[in-house]
Task: structure prediction
Amino acid sequence: MRKGLSCPYGQNNLIYTLSSADRALIEPELKPVKLPKGMMLEEPGKPVDLVYFPKTGVGSTVAVARNDRRIEVGLFGCDGMSGTAIVMQSDHASNETFMQIAGDGFSIEPDTLRALLDQSPTLHRHLLRYVQAMMSQISQTALSNGHGKLEERLARWLLMCHDRIRNDEMSLTHEFISVMLGVRRAGVTVGTHMLEGKGLIRANRGQIVVLDRAGLENEAWKSYGAPEADHDRLIGYDQPD
Amino acid sequence: MRKGLSCPYGQNNLIYTLSSADRALIEPELKPVKLPKGMMLEEPGKPVDLVYFPKTGVGSTVAVARNDRRIEVGLFGCDGMSGTAIVMQSDHASNETFMQIAGDGFSIEPDTLRALLDQSPTLHRHLLRYVQAMMSQISQTALSNGHGKLEERLARWLLMCHDRIRNDEMSLTHEFISVMLGVRRAGVTVGTHMLEGKGLIRANRGQIVVLDRAGLENEAWKSYGAPEADHDRLIGYDQPD
DNA sequence: GCGCCTGGGTGCGGAACCGTACCGGAATTC
DNA sequence: GAATTCCGGTACGGTTCCGCACCCAGGCGC
Result:
């Protein structure tokens, strides 16, 4: 587990790190919600109809091209939120966001959130800083997609997932990972074998177990770390109050 | 020229599309400034020391990895600004931004801008929506880097540059383009030959001339367009007032 | 005029990854 | 327990792009 995500299990870190005043402001408006696997949180070009703050599970943000090519650009769990367009004073999402690993969390109406943002500059500031951290993550993804070898990108992706799950076991199929990374399914099979051969993970049938996190970080050192450090600086230890 | 960038030549579109009240607010604080080629506008991990609004020229935002791998993630000209971290209520940049093609524009002190953002929610909103458009552009870059062939990525990049120059001739070396795209210099040579062969551009010695813009767009259709449409929706025709 | 630097053209071997396809075992369904 | 679906292992030819290297031409300084 990364240090910046050390909020208690079953909390959303963005909410948890708010000042008590801001938390008191937003908490009454948050509705508990199940987030089943595959649930669509926002769709490109459409208005955001609910904003979600996961407590568990993992959400993926995917850029989609006209010709149906798609690739994951960002990923979040208890550290983040969907519907960032609202924070940006827009209303339409530009990417697709869905639940990649089931969980639960909170939802809030966009209009309500907008009102709260107007009411509390510190709340707005907090969420803006989160979006800034996401931009850093997306930038790193662009870099990694451009320069990284498959094995390195795979290691980075597994790490980012692992960061957001309080468990070394992850339910992930090669097929799914291949879509997220924008590579062949067979490529992922080969990549996981490489990582298995080095004793970093163990995989079988829709299950990947992280054995050596430090080793994975080493494998992905070119691509992993900078956005995570940004996040910790922007959110983790920067609690207003 | 794209429709969303149709502000008068020698204006910054972000400033130009402000409400008259907001423009009156910010204009006294803007200092005219030359933006020579290669000028560093912000550096990763360092505080933003000035925010720039170009009127002419092109700026590049580049993600840098620890091992010195780098790749351009975003690009802006008279349509944008540097120092978006300030708009996001942060102070440190996470990427490197520099002038790729010389120009001129305005600068403003971060503290001054911060004060203005607090003072005018509509100003803040306007700039936030610009950052949202940039996120869309970065996402598309990640997608393009992951899936796109060199020729297609090259076409997209030339289009994005062309959008921000009021001229079909662009001073660009293969070497420079190769760094921006994160590919070999020789690869760019081959790619430009392909585009030349199709009659879309003409290139010689540090000069690239766009001959057939529509053809270029066709060549890059998978990657070009969506972020530009987002930008136009968020900024171009959404003038408060 | 000469040398030098910059920018671009070209070639070659090899690595990485693609598209496609086939197969087998594991889980699920009825 | 038979059928079906899901998931992963494997193979093969082809393409794209890399790393490296060498050379040539234009432009500049001296």
Notes: Chain B touches chain A through 49 residues (CB under 8 Å). Chain B has two domains: 3-145+226-236, 149-219.
